Amino acid sequence: MIDELLEYNRAFVDKKGYERYVTNKYPDKKIAIVTCMDTRLVELIPAALGIRNGDVKMIKNAGGTITHPFGSAMRSLLVAIYELGVEEIMIIGHTDCGAQHMDSKVMLQHIKEHGVTDEQIAMMEYCNVDLNSWLSGFDNVEQSVRGSVHLVKHHPLVPKDIIVRGFIINSVTGELTEFKNIE
Questions:
Q1: What is the pLDDT of residues 62-87, one digit of tens each?
Q2: I need a surface site. Which of 65, 81, 148, 176 has the fewest CB within 10 A?
Q3: Predicted local distance difference test score (pLDDT) of residue 24
Q4: Taking phi first (over 0 means left), then psi (-120 to 50 degrees means alpha), and beta for anything else, what does residue 163 get?
Q5: Is the pLDDT reported for residue 101 higher than 90?
Q6: CA atoms within 13 A on the CB side of 72
């Protein structure tokens, strides 16, 4: 599969397909969006919001959540604010999210089925990684979005003038629902 993508890439570059995407690293709309890596959202979010290449910084992960105040998603937001001029942040969860109700015990079983040993898992725990928490999903998308918004708004390194708002996008229609009064 990767070889097919690489073959396509060579043709894309040869035909100068990239020319319509040329922009710089600074987001034109000064917005960062944190959302889920769900494949249904790849084209749906830009289409539903009318954004194009170069308009926003898009940070994607499983569930579209900020799970740790010093994790990679939060680090990416800080880079977006301080290095790239972002002034507003949208946290966008979505309906029918695969991270909802994700069970760490099931995930660990899948990990073991793929050859990861108990010793390797024990090493993670020895390094103070709470695998049950780290590999769990969430029960409620709204609560997940509200929690992420709260974490960003109250992060000690995020300036108070940064606007942070939370939404859920319908993963079929693209309709956004905003959650107000998140403190």
A1: 999 999 999 999 999 999 999 999 99
A2: 176
A3: 93
A4: beta
A5: no
A6: 5
pLDDT at 182 > cutoff 80:
no
Task: Please determine, for residue 183, whether its predicted confidence score (pLDDT) is greater than 90.
Answer: no
Please answer whether residues 49 and 61 qualify as being in contact, where contact means their C-beta atoms are separated by less than 8 angstroms. Answer: no
> Which of these, 156, 165, 150, lies nearest to 66 by C-alpha position?
150
pLDDT of 49 over the 90 cut:
yes
Beta partners for residue 164, in sequence order: 89
In contact, 97 and 36? CB cutoff 8 Å: yes
Report residue 64 as tokens. Answer: 């579209």
CA 108, 113, 118, 120 dihedral sign is: negative
Half-sphere exposure of 181 (CA within 13 A, CB side): 0
